[in-house]
Amino acid sequence: MTRHWIEYLVFLAVVLTLARPVGLYLARVFEGERTFLDRLLCPIESLLHRLLGVHRDREMSPAVYLGCFLLFSLLGTVFLFIFLWCQRLFPGGPDQHLLTTPMTADLAANTALSFSTTTTWQAYAGESTMRYLSQTVGLVSQNFLAGAAGLAVGIAFIRGFARERSATLGNFWVDLIRALLWVLLPLSLAGSLVLVWQGVPLNLDAYVGAKTLEGALQTIPQGPVAALEFIKNLGTNGGGFFNANGAHPYANPTPFTNFLGMLAITVLPAALPITFGYLTGRLRAGVLLLAVMVALFVGGLAVCDRFESVSPRYAAGAGIAGGNMEGKEVRFGVAGSVLTAVVTSNGATGSYNSMHDSYHPVSVLVLLMNMLLGEVTFGGLGTGLYSLVIVALMGTFIAGLMIGRTPEYLGKTIGAGENRLIALYVVLTSAVVLPMTALASVSSAGLAGLSTNGGAHGLTEILFAYASCMANNGQTMAGLDASGSFYNLTTMVAMAVGRFGLAAVALLLAGRFAAQKRRAVTIGTLPCDTVPFGVLILGTVLLIGALCFLVVLALGPIAEYLG
Fold it and tell me: At residue 29, does pLDDT exceed 90?
């Protein structure tokens, strides 16, 4: 246990050490201030602006910014769908007879939408479904583009609190290009080279046949794995080159690559509260948001580590050496598996390295809540920040009702119009996930996907799938066969609402705050950068989770644990 916490605390220490400089760097990038990469990247940026007809000085209203985001995502989805649908015509890559899963129209549509929304929900095995060109051009390009688009929306949301009397939130195309050139591309290049150094393949070789000790013939997939693996984490996508994702030794060969992958998932989202505080002029408020994220993260780690450190096959307290190792890789152990499970469920990156279907029901409960609460702990590129800020706004409103004052956050008034948008954001996840879980639980098409488990565990698997898609996370418990048309189509709805519905509400809310004048701080102003306010945010997170999801959780993982 002590060794586990050494690993957890080292990880947190590295994340928090990097959060401030990375957060300030992001602020400088998106405010157009000088950075050390400007001499190399500014000429490329200017060239792209000329080619694409982008005018840096033409800022956009929230509605126009949202429209550009939706249009860009739609074009990306259509392009990837056509690309995947036509992949049988592509040269190179694994031989066609090795691709045993057919790329049907509904599977191509589901995959295209999942990658353009950073969900990367994969109802297929990559090594038996995708050609190399599909992986490197189709999927990798969307990992970059969709990740950059999400970061752009997050920055626009921050501007809503940073600006006064403004009708605009910036220019989507300028933010998108800056996110690509200054953030994702340089970090991915460096990270991918480290992965190659650690043994992750980067080739276009044919699959290799090997004879096992039993005399059977085993096919060992090859491919440009390193091109996909780092950006899938950095861009909060998570879709693996292999079906086993981060558990595959080619994708994640060493504890160091696992640690590096978790940093790639966490550092940028952890830095965004610092960016928020810097751009709004309230750095302490940003630090408080980060502290709330850390508190939730440590709580999730503590619970999961406690229950995974004891084998479920033995009575509580008996235990075995190594803990619950079912479904976990020996090279990562309980600590590396738990850290990855908590990190990936908190973010929009389903790069799991162990099978969550084998986790203790209480551990699964933690992973579910991380996704159902809207990625308030670190989260994706932008989504985690605006989810937590909106929870803070809800808490501010509740506190305002208690003391009889008009609620304000960072000098911006939370009026009736703002409250309607906040309420819509808070209930949207439950309004999508719960009905779809109910439909899948009573329909023959939905129940057909439960190939292994029924009862409370089966319900948990279904709930996990829709929560993962709504959170644009993409990981699965693996006991649910979601390759049929029913799940291909219904998970698409959850992915679309989770990406575009929540982003639309966040941008419209930011627009309303940007149009306001910042109110002066008085003796009656609720301070937004103190420990009591942080406790208020934590309480609001737990309250929202209980009100929205306690019933279905009681029927799923809680019932399984008590049974």
Answer: yes
